[in-house]
Amino acid sequence: MIVSTHRIPRSVLDELAAGRGGADAVARLRAAQHSKSVLLVRAIILLLQETGHPDRAAVEAAYKMLAEFQLQQRATAFGHPPVAAWAFGTASLLSEGRSAEAYPGLLAAVAATAAVRAGADADLDVPLAPGATGRLDLPGLGTATLPAAATRARVRVVGGRARAYGAGERIDIGDGRSTDPRWHPVPRLDLTHGGLPLSLVVDTRTWRYVPGLGTGHRIGGEFTGPWRSRLDGAWRILVDHHRPVAEEISGALSALVPIPAPRRGSRSGTFHHAFGSVAMSLPPDARAAAVVLAHEIQHAKLAALTDMFALLGPGPPELFYAPWRTDPRPLDGLLHGAYAHLGVAGFWRRQARVSGAGAAQHRAEVEFARWTRAAAETVRVLTMQRRLTPVGRHLVDGMAGVLAHWATEPVTPRAAAAAWRLLDAHRDRWDRNRAPTG
């Protein structure tokens, strides 16, 4: 497979350091992530040759087909976020000599998915995962329920028609073309507003094959009507009032990962090695969903950037206070949090300008003042760290400049006072929890 050389021009790095970047930066980061996945899959192939894994023949055949697809530009096989995370985890397991814990056979399922989507003739042997009990998961496409006795499946695509075979049964599969009740396509969310699309797959099954996550790692929950309506509303808010951020999200995000809600509030996150995914619990409303997406796109950009450049050098395992967490954070977590909350502050800054006078504008001003101060105080801590590399310092300096400018922008005295109370209350709780007892 072909791997490209990737560079970030200084002008693009400047934009990223300011918390922006735009569609151009996202496209560069996404392309670099694709090459990272290709290299990891190459590593898997080489490591399988050393281990004599029983799935080796099927995996090598799948790799050969995917390499041909790449040359023909017929399919993008590694763009599905959990597949990228699987590649990283599987290569790690094989390199550590833990081949019994790995499921390299997923690459055959990835190749089958690519063939089905491309409508390309193919005949692939797909080993099923241990304990899958006849379940053939095609990443980002769907699941075929074969007899429980099936340990392998055959996926054949002929004349654009795709079928899965296993334990004597045949199932029609495909992108919305199959009516077989044993075929369960992955749900999709396709939104367009103001000419800008957002297309997300809601694939909760493929994540179970990512090493380190496990079968039930906070992933699950039904993708129901409230999800669609709140994300549709969020997309309208982002496109109408936060267009540059919406363009980044449109270019980067491709997978939604529903997770259970905590007892209070909501939860969201990203996976470092699964660029393009966002995990979140059902947001309470459209505006909350918009904030989550504006927050998590920052994490996605920074994670991809750290795969290209070291931002921190080695050093002692220090822990720091973060104004958005109840637990102390390591330095890399502090950097990530500051960058994400720069995005949150920017969201509320823009939101304050479009909210009518009243409660909505007051809330936006409070949140803008709160997160601008929180991020600025954290960035001041970061600027004093000797572990910052030249690129890391450039990033921190860029954030500092933006936040210093925002700190001069007026908000009402009432909003400023409310923001300071929230920040002070958080620090007081943190200090009390950290105080020695006895």
Brief summary:
By secondary structure, the protein is of the alpha+beta class. Among the domains are: 35-185, no CATH class; 324-438.
Would you kindly provide a written description of the structure presented here, covering whatever features stand out?
The protein has 438 residues and is of the alpha+beta class. Among the domains are: 35-185, no CATH class; 324-438. It contains 12 helices and 14 strands. Strands 1-4-5-6 form a 4-stranded antiparallel β-sheet. It is globular and about 75 Å long. The protein starts with 9 loop residues before the first helix and ends with a helix.
Give the SSE string: HHHHHEEEEEEEEEHHEEEHEEHHHH
Helix-strand category: alpha+beta
End-to-end separation in angstroms reads 62 Å
Secondary structure tally, helices? 12
Measured by DSSP, the beta-strand proportion falls in: 5-15%
Major sheet, described briefly? Answer: 4 strands, antiparallel
Mean pLDDT: 91
Please tell me what the overall shape is: globular
Strand sequence of the main sheet, in spatial order? Answer: 1-4-5-6
Low-confidence stretches: none
What helical percentage do the residues reach?
40-55%
- Total strands: the figure is 14
Radius of gyration: 23 Å
